[in-house]
Amino acid sequence: MESPYRVAGRMANPGLAQRIAWLVWGICVSLILGATVIGILDGKVLWRIANIISAGVAFGLFGTVGALIVSQRTRNTIGWILCAVGIGTGITDFSGAYLYSIWYGKGAPAAARN
């Protein structure tokens, strides 16, 4: 286990960094799963659903690998970058699926469907 190090002038515990990394991973996976569920419930065609699922798996692996790296080496910058890419992609994926379903989905305003 690594020794404590300084963050903002105070001693930080590596266990805290590991918990933060797994929390980020959980948020990433939850957002990607939410986007997948929204896409499936929106009644899209099969190729679009397959695209959503494959992109979700691919970008979900960024967060997974990042969390695994940070859980072993808390000061590894690459692990934190991968966690950031995972959560950023999760936010983008979820917000894109949500907005698409609002504007072009079943409950879309009439002006957006034309």
What is the gist of this entry?
This protein has 114 residues and is mostly helical.
Characterise this structure.
- The protein is elongated and about 50 Å long.
- A hairpin with a 2-residue loop joins strand 1 (5-7) and strand 2.
- The longest helix has 28 residues, at 14-41.
- Helix 1 packs antiparallel against helix 2, helix 1 (14-41) runs parallel beside helix 3 and helix 2 (46-72) runs antiparallel to helix 3 (77-104).
- The protein has helices spanning 14-41, 46-72, 77-104, 110-113, and strands at residues 5-7, 10-12.
- It is mostly helical and 114 residues long.
- The model has no long low-confidence stretch (mean pLDDT 82).
- The protein has a two-stranded antiparallel ribbon with strand order 1-2.
- The protein has one domain (14-107).
- The chain contains 4 helices and 2 strands; from the N terminus they run E-E-H-H-H-H.
Provide tags for this entry:
2 strands; mainly alpha; 4 helices
